[in-house]
Amino acid sequence: MADPRGDARNDxxxxxxVAAPDPKNVQELTTYVTVLLQQxxxxxxxxxxxxxxxxxxMGTRIDDLERNIADLMTQAGPEETDK
Length: 83
Fold this sequence. Notes:
There is one protein chain. About 70% of the residues lie in helices and about 0% in strands. The chain is mainly α.
């Protein structure tokens, strides 16, 4: 299993790579905001993909666990019930 901290990024890595705005006009501000929103969307998509991947992995593990439990119950044989 991968180290969950390996996927974590520190604050410097998550910092926006766009230079601090000093917009001279509305067009520059619009461009800055557009780039910023695109970066946020990309990060959100990356995090969403990672979450879905981990959920799928957990589902596979649960399926394996259920199979292993069923195998163990089969190997143990029928359990007699006390009445």
